[in-house]
Write a structure and sequence with these properties.
The complex is a heterotrimer of chains A (184), B (423) and C (858).
Chain A: H1 3-10, H2 13-26, E1 50-52, H3 67-71, E2 77-83, E3 89-97, H4 106-110, E4 116-118, E5 133-134, H5 136-146, H6 149-160, H7 163-166
Antiparallel strand pairs in A: 1-4, 2-3, 3-5
Chain B: H1 17-22, H2 27-34, H3 37-47, H4 59-68, E1 75-80, H5 90-96, H6 98-112, E2 116-121, H7 126-141, E3 146-147, E4 155-162, H8 172-180, E5 203-207, H9 208-220, H10 222-226, E6 236-243, E7 249-254, H11 259-266, E8 276-280, E9 314-319, H12 324-338, H13 344-361, H14 369-380, H15 387-412, H16 417-422
Parallel strand pairs in B: 1-2, 1-5, 2-4, 6-9
Antiparallel strand pairs in B: 3-4, 6-7, 8-9
Chain C: E1 2-6, E2 9-13, H1 19-25, E3 49-52, E4 59-60, E5 71-73, H2 77-92, H3 108-116, E6 139-141, H4 151-160, E7 165-168, E8 175-178, H5 191-195, E9 201-203, E10 217-222, E11 231-237, E12 240-245, H6 259-263, E13 278-281, E14 284-287, H7 290-308, E15 313-316, H8 323-336, E16 342-343, H9 350-361, E17 378-382, H10 386-389, H11 391-402, E18 406-410, E19 422-424, H12 431-446, H13 453-461, H14 466-473, H15 477-489, E20 493-497, H16 499-502, H17 507-521, E21 524-527, H18 534-539, E22 546-547, E23 551-552, H19 556-566, H20 578-587, E24 592-596, H21 600-603, H22 607-615, E25 619-624, H23 629-633, E26 636-639, E27 648-651, E28 657-660, H24 671-681, H25 691-701, H26 710-715, E29 746-751, H27 765-770, E30 776-778, H28 780-785, E31 793-798, E32 801-809, E33 817-821, E34 850-855
Helix pairs in contact in C: 2-3, 7-24, 8-24, 8-25, 9-17, 12-14, 12-15, 12-17, 20-22
The chains are: A alpha+beta (184), B alpha/beta (423), C alpha/beta (858).
Chain lengths: 184, 423, 858
């Protein structure tokens, strides 16, 4: 043991160093949030609860192409479509098993119409498993809840708007903008 | 030069068999029937006769292929589907000199060993149909057609089939399809028609003008014939001149007459003494020539050296008042309309070219459209099933090659300088 | 040997093929769109352009034949540009509605663009628009998406031979349209659907309800409809068959299907399917449990057996059930009930005719390969339209005609009328005279081969000069002579015999004459079969006189062998045929009837008579998948599993064994399992736990099926068997000559349409949409004579009943006939037919029912 080390031990240098941090921190504001009284705002692009987007007329944007389900790594999206009375494609069921979802956001990237989105909402504890099985109606409700108003709109535009929506084509060029009429 | 193909056409009754015989008709036939069939082919080979339809394929070679095929019966088809815009060279033969064609076909049929012939007539020539039918029945009555021609064992039967008005049926395989009753669309080659043609039998398809050359060729002999016109491809040729010349019309001249001669000497120059702007030398699908390049001999061998083709010999002359964008647009509209729809580049590409040209012509052209035209034309050329698509693309390419500034100006000025001047 | 170099790789070719095929054989991919291996070359799409050294232009690989020393490059920069350019052209007018289009995911254009295509478009104009055509009930056309590859047109014309669709207009306006306008008036084979590379022609069944990648389960199984036994692939999502597709390379159908196979699968998921066992209590069928129903049936059968003996009980097996079902069922009848009273509706034609022919030529005489028909140089068709009864077999006949074979028909055969057939149209009931003339002429021309003496002795008795035959039948002598000439000069002829010959008056005599023709010209015989397992039900011994493997019961040594295998005695007495059963039931000597998957009330002649006979039974047990006419009368109804829900084997008309596989799951029991349960409750244990177990026993017991296993069947169907056919037991040939034709008047004819097959297809909505209702088909002359027109309601009456049906005037119908189908509930043709049996074939005579037709009163 060298003399320096002996001195340090005798005079409690290390303990004093440690206590210095304690004293310094004693006069600062606490970092810990007192959740749920105090909530952390979600970071930009946070991937929370799913929602099915509505278009300007309030109809569901989804046409039932099934790409989200095809991409989904945990296979938690189930879509059932059928032929409607006017021979158009109708999305009968759009269901997400949220408990299986890993929130990778691939579904959103796959969607050609920006119909499926992930909201900033993350507080959805429930007491039954069934409540996490999101049906089409629940997912549309989520849209109304979390994407209504300017904040939701901004969030959707900044993070979940599909590329095809901003793609500008020539005047008059035939482009597919969605044709299915979902039952609302 | 004495008129061979257009001989006697001033005579209002030239289509009648007696008038034709009076002028020396059907003499070559009896001469030919005394020859062996392979000698006729030899004679045609010596004459260096090339097909007058546009490609200039040596006739003797085609005949050798077909007569060498062991399958029977063989067929001889006369391609009278003269659909190329600007072309009207066969019409005087069909309407004024039908017996010349019939005589040529019988000689050719004898040479090939073909006993059946068809004249595939253009749908838009209703008058020619009646004249031909009358001539054929006269020929039957006089023993020039049917079984035992001129008392010999030779048989040859001939019928006229009228098309329904499709440009593509001028292509030999499409013509065969149409004749068989199918949709006029070109067939896969090989097998070539000389081996598997109409009704899957060896078939020779020759142009009207080619066949009409035969009586004269047989009459004077191959060597004498070879001395007419340019040495590489001899013979008389009908040039049909239209557009802004003083005397448009049909001219029978020796092969290889210079384009400049045709326009300025034979046709009396540009109408109204205006300036020449462009010439299409051989029907709409041949490359356009600017005024400085018109000093070229009009034959199958030399025209490609001057950047164009002889085609059907249909000279279209345009003076300075003509808007070339509009000409190009009009040409593409024709090609789009006539595209058969079999292959993708032609079906979709001609329409696209037409719509871009239409846009430029109507003053809505955008920057880069000329390059787009070249790119689209480049995607068509060499990739289509038959030459129709190539024609459409090369017309576009050549108009732009020689007259690009006019296209650019059209886009920039949002309209047509030439037309405004004219107005 | 041809050697070509593609992309630096040397490829040796045995026979001349195209560059594309050469490249594919070496694993080099060249993109194509208009190329289809089953179709003739086209060269239209220009995607397969390749560079060939010493050739100035780019060449299409799909049309260019590989020549020795050719050097080809397929992956250069220039070619990439070409492909990009061509795909850009294809896309300028193609809508970008992939998220909506049902083809997305298996669209060839989509795949090509993804791999080779441009990423952006330069086309600035409006795209071509065309409304979707929904006029047709089962096919939808969307011509915006069409890429004019003409695969559908070439398929329709060159393979199917229907020539129902064509490319209309030219150039950029080209589009595919049926010649009949919006609605397809065609054979609805749907092969255009499988040929279409994009979503331009698609099926309307289950439209918009799946995406290709959601069809997670694919099962290769055998078609449940006719005796050809096509392999089809059932694609399933969530236990619902979404579509049925063919597969190229399968032995019988090789990528083709007919309307029934392709559009007739929906009965599987029908809501009308039976779900629970039903027991009749107080005259009403009530839901019950399996235990109760099985116990009840076992107890009642046991009681009846002890009271009246086993011969008072009979069983009807089914040509729609698998071999395993039928084997277990006949074993149950013979072992548990001790009777040979077992038969099936194969008795109405197929079984008798086959027995007759095999008696002459030996077992296996009708087991000829269907694709072999295409290589025949003459095909004689007698008794029905093969293109409607066995459509895929019909296609082979068309293929034969296309290759230059002569098609000879007796009577007008609608399905081959475009193939320049030599038709002989004898007057009604004079076919025998016509054939006598043909046999006499052939005998003189070809001489007797001298190999089958029994037949030759019969042939020697036949004598009718051609002129006499021609006069009697009302055909010209010239036609008849040409017919005989074509037949006698053929070196590989084939004879196709349909049910109309077998069910004609004097059917056995007609069959003898046809056999004589086949014998004299050495033709292969094909016996048309309407039901999927008609051959199998006979082979499994579901006949009163046959044991499994088609071994006759009357031979003691055979019986001993089976007794040893089954460890149970087999009754010696020959059982009753299906018609005897009905008679016995009427007479009261038959007390119980066990029906497995059959509907005798509808499928036997004289429906009312059969119904009355069955009413007298003490016990009627029915196993079926639907509530049929017979099931309604039953005391106990068991719900069975359908074709798609179980495993088993079918034997097709060429005696090829093929494996059925389970495509969808459903609760319930297979037919054999129900029978095993009933037998178990009666104290007869049959130790089968799967269809494979049963098959193992079949291969052990039946000499015909020796040494076969499911493992072998797994690969592809088995043809021929390794077992030993029965030879050398041919007996004398008994025939019954028909009475002279009574001329004049109208007779009932049974229409066998392409779109229906008995009582199964009427539960398939797709097929019902194509052929909606029963009609009375009459010739224009008949219609004119009675001043009837299309759509008029008429009353067709025979001595035993009448039907009121709308009239359909059809050129293909003979003047003396009124054609009615036997498919629609309450309007079956057989309900008008008297039951008259041919004494030899024991098959009903169908063409002697005189009918009258008159306008129905309002």
């Amino acid at each position: 043991m060298t003399s320096g080390k002996i001195l340090k031990t005798v005079f409690f240098v290390e303990i004093l160093k440690g206590l210095a941090l304690t004293f310094r921190t004693l006069f600062k504001h606490p970092v810990t949030r007192r959740y749920p009284k105090v909530k952390v705002p979600a970071k930009a692009g946070f991937r929370g609860l799913h929602a099915l987007a509505r278009n300007a007329e309030g109809r569901m944007k989804c046409v039932g192409c099934g790409l989200c389900g095809a991409y989904c790594p945990s296979k938690c999206i189930h879509i059932y479509t059928s032929e409607g009375d006017d021979h158009a494609k109708i999305v009968d069921r759009y269901e997400i098993d949220v408990l299986r979802c890993i929130f990778c956001g691939f579904c959103v990237e796959a969607c050609p119409f920006g119909a499926i989105t992930l909201s900033e909402h993350y507080e959805y504890s429930e007491t039954s498993r069934g409540a996490f099985y999101m049906t089409r109606e629940k997912l549309l409700e989520n849209w109304d809840k979390y994407f209504a108003g300017p904040k939701g709109e901004r969030y959707f535009k900044e993070f979940w708007l599909p590329q095809s929506n901003t793609y500008s084509s020539y005047e008059g060029q035939a482009m597919f903008r969605g044709r299915a009429k979902g039952k609302e | 030069m004495e008129k061979v193909l257009l001989k006697n056409i001033e005579n209002p009754h030239s289509a009648d068999i007696d008038e034709y015989k009076k002028a020396g008709g059907y003499r070559s036939l009896s001469k030919a029937l005394d020859m062996a069939s392979k000698d006729i082919i030899e004679e045609v080979k010596k004459a260096g006769l090339r097909g007058r339809g546009g490609a200039g394929f040596p006739v003797a070679m085609k005949w050798t292929f077909a007569s060498g095929d062991p399958k029977f019966p063989k067929y001889l088809l006369c391609n009278a589907d003269e659909g190329e815009p600007g072309t009207f060279k066969d019409r005087p033969i069909l309407e004024k000199n039908p017996h010349l064609l019939i005589e040529g076909m019988v000689i050719s049929g004898y040479a090939l060993g073909a006993e059946y012939g068809y004249i595939y007539l253009r749908g838009e020539y209703p008058a020619a149909k009646d004249i031909l039918n009358k001539a054929i029945s006269q020929a039957y009555e006089n023993g020039y057609l049917g079984d035992g021609i001129l008392g010999k064992k030779t048989r040859f039967h001939l019928a006229v089939h009228q098309g329904a008005g499709a440009y593509i049926c001028g292509e030999e395989t499409a013509l065969i399809e149409s004749l068989e009753g199918d949709k006029g669309q070109p067939r896969i080659k090989p097998p070539f028609p000389v081996n598997v043609g109409v009704f899957s039998k060896p078939t020779v398809v020759n142009n009207v003008e080619t066949l009409a050359n035969l009586p004269y060729l047989i009459g004077i002999g191959g060597e004498a014939y070879a001395r007419i016109g340019s040495p590489e491809c001899p013979g008389p040729k009908i040039y049909c001149v239209s557009g802004h010349v003083e005397r448009p019309g049909v001219y029978e001249l020796p092969m290889g007459t210079s384009l400049k001669d045709i326009i300025y000497t034979h046709c009396g120059g540009i109408k109204g003494g205006k300036k020449l702007k462009a010439v299409i030398p051989g029907g709409i699908s041949t490359p356009v020539l600017p005024p400085e390049k018109i000093d070229c001999p009009m034959d199958f061998v030399n025209m490609p050296k001057h950047g164009s083709m002889l085609g059907s010999g249909a000279v279209i002359v345009m003076d300075e008042t003509v808007c070339l964008v509009k000409v190009c647009y009009r040409a593409l509209k024709f090609f789009e309309h006539e595209s058969c729809g079999k292959c993708t580049p032609c079906r979709e590409g001609t329409g696209w070219l037409r719509s871009i040209l239409g846009r430029i012509e109507s003053g809505e052209g955008m920057e880069g459209d000329v390059d787009l035209l070249l790119s689209v034309a480049g995607n068509i050329i060499g990739k289509t099933f038959c030459p129709l698509g190539d024609g459409a693309a090369s017309v576009t390419q050549n108009f732009i090659k020689h007259f690009r500034p006019e296209f650019e100006a059209h886009i920039k000025n949002k309209g047509c300088g030439a037309r405004q001047e004219k107005l | 040997m041809i050697t070509v170099t593609i992309n630096g790789k040397e490829i040796k070719l045995e026979k001349p093929v195209t560059v594309l095929e050469a490249a594919r054989s070496a694993g080099i991919k060249i993109p194509t769109l208009c190329y289809h291996e089953q179709l003739e070359k086209y060269g239209g799409c220009r995607l397969c352009l390749v560079e060939v050294e010493k050739m100035p232009r780019l060449q299409t690989a799909c049309t260019l034949m590989a020549a020795d020393g050719m050097v080809v490059r397929t992956e250069t920069e220039a070619i990439a540009d070409v492909r990009r350019g061509v795909l850009e052209f294809l896309l300028i007018n193609h809508p970008l509605d992939c998220p909506y289009c049902d083809k997305a995911g298996e669209c060839e254009l989509q795949d090509l663009v993804e791999k080779y295509g441009p990423t952006t478009g330069r086309f600035k104009e409006k795209k071509r628009k065309a409304p979707e055509s929904l006029e047709d009930p089962v096919l939808v056309r969307n011509m915006e998406r069409c890429v004019v590859c003409t695969r559908c047109v070439r398929m329709c014309e060159g393979v199917q031979g229907a020539a129902a669709i064509g490319v209309i207009n030219r150039g950029g306006h080209s589009h595919v349209e049926p010649f009949s306008g919006g609605r397809f008036e065609c054979e609805y084979c749907g092969n255009c659907v499988s040929a279409c590379p994009v979503g331009a022609i698609m099926s309307r069944l289950h439209r918009h309800s799946y995406r290709p990648w959601q069809l997670v389960s694919e099962t290769e199984t055998i078609c449940p409809y006719c005796g050809v036994g096509c392999t089809l692939v059932a694609q399933v999502r969530d236990d619902v068959i979404k579509r049925v597709v063919p597969r190229i390379g399968t032995p019988v159908n090789n990528g083709l299907l007919c309307s029934r196979g392709r559009f007739g699968y929906e009965f599987v998921g029908s809501k009308e399917r039976l779900t629970t066992p039903l027991i009749k209590k107080n005259g009403v069928l009530e839901q019950s449990t399996w235990e109760e129903a099985i116990g009840f049936v076992a107890r009642r059968l046991g009681e009846l057996k002890t009271r009246y003996g086993g011969d008072a009980i009979a069983g009807i097996a089914s040509p729609r059930c698998t071999n395993e079902d039928n084997y277990v069922f006949q074993k149950f009848m013979r072992v548990a009930l001790g009777t040979n009273n077992i038969d099936s509706t194969a008795r109405t034609g197929y079984a008798g005719a086959q027995a007759f022919i095999e008696n002459i030529f030996g077992q296996g005489a009708t087991a000829n390969l269907i694709p072999g028909l295409a290589n025949a140089d003459a095909v004689l068709i007698a008794g029905g339209d093969p293109t409607a009864v066995n459509p895929i077999l019909g296609l082979q006949i068309r293929s034969c005609a296309r290759k230059g074979g002569n098609i000879l028909t007796i009577g007008h055969v609608k399905g081959v009328r475009h193939y320049n057939p030599a038709e002989l149209k004898p007057n009604v009931h004079t076919e025998a005279a016509l054939l006598e003339g043909v046999v006499t002429a052939l005998k003189e021309k070809k001489g007797l081969p001298g190999s089958i003496q029994t037949l030759e002795s019969k042939i020697k008795e036949i004598h009718r000069p051609l002129d006499d035959a021609a006069r009697t039948c009302g055909v010209t002598e010239k036609d008849l002579a040409a017919f005989v000439e074509a037949l006698s000069t053929a070196s590989t002829p084939a004879l196709v015999i349909g049910k109309e010959v077998i069910q004609s008056a004097g059917g056995s005599y007609n069959l003898l004459l046809l056999s004589a023709v086949a014998y004299l010209v050495n033709a292969r015989i094909h016996l048309l079969s309407e039901r999927a397992n008609e051959q199998g039900v006979v082979d499994m011994g579901c006949a009163p006189d046959l044991l499994p493997g088609c071994r006759p019961l009357s031979y003691v040594e055979f019986r001993r062998r089976y007794e040893a295998a089954w460890k149970s005695p087999i009754p010696e007495k020959q059982g009753m045929t299906i018609f005897d059963m009905i008679d016995a039931a009427k007479a009261g000597s038959l007390r119980a009837l066990y029906v497995m998957g059959e509907n005798p009330v509808f499928n036997l002649p004289n429906a009312k008579g059969v119904e009355a006979a069955l009413r007298g039974l003490e016990l009627l047990v029915v196993q079926d998948i639907f509530m049929t006419e017979t099931a309604r009368m039953a005391d106990v109804v068991f719900p069975a599993l359908s074709w798609a829900e179980r495993e088993g084997t079918f034997t097709n008309m060429e005696r090829r064994l093929q494996l059925l596989r389970k495509a969808v799951n459903r609760e319930g029991m297979e037919d054999w399992r129900i029978v095993v349960e009933v037998a178990g409750n009666m104290g007869v244990r049959m130790h089968f736990s799967s269809a494979e177990d049963i098959f193992a026993e079949i291969t052990r017991v039946s000499p015909l099926h020796r040494d076969l296993s499911y493992e072998e069947l797994e690969k592809s169907g088995i043809y021929p068997y390794k077992g030993e056919p029965l030879r050398g037991v041919t007996g004398d040939i008994a025939v019954a000559k028909p009475a002279a034709g009574d001329g004049g008047g109208l007779f009932l004819g049974i229409e066998r349409p392409l779109f229906h097959s008995g009582t199964l297809s009427r539960r398939a909505p797709g097929l019902v949409k194509i052929y909606e209702t029963a009609v009375a088909r009459i010739s224009p002359a008949t219609a004119a004579a009675r001043s009837l027109k299309e759509g008029d309601m008429v009353r067709v009456s025979s001595v035993i009943g009448y039907l009121e049906l709308p009239v359909a005037v059809d050129f293909a119908v003979r003047d003396a006939l009124v054609m009615i189908t036997n498919n629609f509930e309450g309007r079956g043709a057989l309900s008008l037919m008297e039951l008259v049996l041919d004494p030899v074939l024991r098959a009903p005579v169908a063409d002697k029912t005189a009918v009258t037709i008159e306008k129905a009163g309002r």
